[in-house]
Amino acid sequence: MSSKTGKPVMHSAAWRISLWATLAYACGTMLVFVFMHQFIAQDIQRRSDAWLTGEVEVLGDVAEHTPKDALYGRVMGEVAELASKEVPNRVRSESSGNDSVFFLQLGTNGAMQLWAGPGSSEPYAAAIQKATFSQDRPTDVNVAGTTIPFRVAMLPIDNGSRVYLGLSERDQLRVLRKLRVRFILWWLLLVALGFAIAFYTTRRMLSHVRSITEAASRIGHSDLRERVPASERKDEVGQLSRTLNRMLDRIENSMHQLHTITDSLAHDLRSPLTAIRGKLEMSLLAATHGEQAEPIVSAIDELDRLTEFLNASLDVAEARADALRLSRSEIDLDELLRIMVDLYEPSMAEKGLQIRLRSVGPLTVEADAALVHRMVANLFDNELKHLPASCTVTVRLESGDGVALLSVEDDGPGFAPEVSQHLFERRVKGKDSDGHGLGLAFVDAVVRAHGGSLTATNRENGGARIVLSLPTVPVHVA
Fold first, then answer.
1. Cβ contacts of residue 421 below 8 Å, gap of 6+?
2. Would you say the pTM of this structure is higher than 0.85?
3. Among the residues of 330-438, which ranges form H helices?
4. DSSP string for 161-185
5. Contact between 240 and 209 (Cβ < 8 Å)
């Protein structure tokens, strides 16, 4: 069972909130039932004790005033039988006789004087003699051969004997058992219904938050002009969407100002640099001696490096601010790498380097073609500048789990220890490097802008390895 976003429902926030809310509700209702069950059990026992106390007084009065002749036992038996028919909450058993009430009269020496009840009087008399009684309150007595205890009331009479009236707790326990069964059934039904209502309500409320989250994740990767779904509701979700849209308005304005500043700065700096370069080229054409032309060529090279440094610095700054402008299109990395390898192979061969390409074949990513070209060029330029002769550069293109893995590794000296922990920071470079320290910083900025990742380490057998990943375009099966 999954949600619309493909995430299992049991892992969703709506499921957890509903589960905890239902658990709290279930525990609360169960606690209420425990108190209610205890109250009802005490009330039933109080009513039974009141009946026992009243009836035993009646039986005691009859026993005290009835002549002790041959009819005494018959009269007391009929009175006890009549009392058994007035038992509160009694449920008739299949047998027609009395099986829930007994009457017992014991003499001063414990001898049996009268018995009215089910079966033999011996186990009842034995249980009574073992129990401790109070005249004010009935006592629970467990009779051998029965699984349900009796509630027994005792009353002494003037002739020294004692009368006992016992009531089985069977009917009381049956009432409580039915109460528990019915409560459990209703409790399960209400808990399930409560969970369904809580889950539906919570999921419906969080669906608006999910819509806001999905829209917010797209903003910045595609177009800052997009906004999260607005809601006219006055609750927290509606307030969240309005707050996010106001924040996005401010971010878009800030990005627009940043682009305006960088474009203006680039234009203001490139214009004089271009003018200077033009004048130097004119001076180079007018130069008549080689000694005069050499400083001009060197100055032109420095201007080119300065222009390249300016462009890379602005791109890195925009990428660090997540404001790099992308013109995405589908690019075959395999084709791009083959073109770049063919382009750089003569330069590397001239320096005594070898470059090899190991590719799995066509692999399409959606990226800015110009930035990806510059990124690959920076990787190859780093190898060209920093590797000594007789080294080999190996470029690998592999397919991962929804990403394209591009690795560039060599068998050279590797990264210097002083810069190995700061490779992607601006203006970080080795002692022998004559660059500006923006190569890998620019690569990292481009990879981050496309939602990928970048790592750079030294190989165990010597040399450096740079691995970057870029999300691939999903293949749609017809």
1. none
2. no
3. 333-350, 369-386
4. -EEEEEEESHHHHHHHHHHHHHHHH
5. yes
115 and 45 fall within a common domain: yes
Q: Are residues 29 and 155 both part of a single domain?
A: yes
* pLDDT tens by residue, 95-118: 445 567 888 888 877 788 788 878
Residue 420 Cα distances to 147, 285, 321, 440, 456, angstroms: 82, 45, 24, 12, 8
Q: Which domain holds residue 266?
A: 236-320
Q: What is the CATH number of the domain that holds 405?
A: 3.30.565.10
pLDDT tens track for 231-286: 676 777 777 778 878 887 887 777 667 667 666 766 666 677 777 777 777 777 77
Neighbours of 440 (CB within 10 A): 23
User: Looking at the chain, how many residues does it have?
Assistant: 478
**Cα end-to-end distance, the chain, whole Å:** 26
Helix runs in 100-232, H state only: 122-130, 170-218
Which domain-ending residue is among 135, 156, 175? 175
